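User: Structure with pyridoxine-5'-phosphate, tokens only please.
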Amino acid sequence: MTLLSVNINKFALLRNSRETNHPDLEEIAKKCIQFGAQGITLHPRPDERHAKFSDLPIISKLVGNYSNIEFNIEGYPSEKFINEVNKTKPNQVTLVPDPPGALTSSFGWDCLKYKSLLIDVVKNFQQNDIRVSLFVNPSIESLINLSEILPDRIELYTFDFAKNFNSDQEKAIEPYLKVVHFLQQNIPSISYNAGHDLNLINLNFLLTKIPLIKEVSIGHALVCDALEYGLKDTIQKYLTITKR
Ligand code: PXP
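Assistant:
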């Protein structure tokens, strides 16, 4: 079974478009959990246009009321991010190399270039008992030094998979299979998450091909689906796939 973590950033974006607390992010997270989501993800970007850093303790407290729900915080490891995440102490932090102002995360870490930064940050969080996942491209070349950085997990950046899925599913998954095979041979301690542009159409294929994936974090498509099916039915539809 793969854990479904709902990324609620898009609800925060909607809330931020008016000077009210509507929709209330805490209520949305509570509903996601009641409807079966096993995790909640927030991604506070430097400009806080989606989730705000002030949302972190609220969602952390909520998630803490449930024994089996995971809180995942994503983001670029700026000094502010590191401090806030260490204070909040989520179950997992997913480190993303997106620059300030990025529309969305659009590439994974270059572990060659950012080796020393990543070694320090990963150790910092792990010493605070926070599981660390690194957002990575489906490219073995970008993973040089990963064995020294040694995060607990990697999150496979699935944009390319989703983009190529409609034209050739087998070709779309190939680079991901290569990365997982390489890591299983070379760093067997690492586990796998996946995220970005996953949806009701491509998710089953991904999880069938890479059943090792422990967690998917899904935001954009899930929120779009909720407009059509409602949040409860949408989460149920995703769970039917992840609980295969
Ligand atoms: N994983 C990471 C690291 C992300 O930055 C995002 C988007 O915030 C997601 C997963 C979820 O992507 P999507 O919104 O396309 O489902």
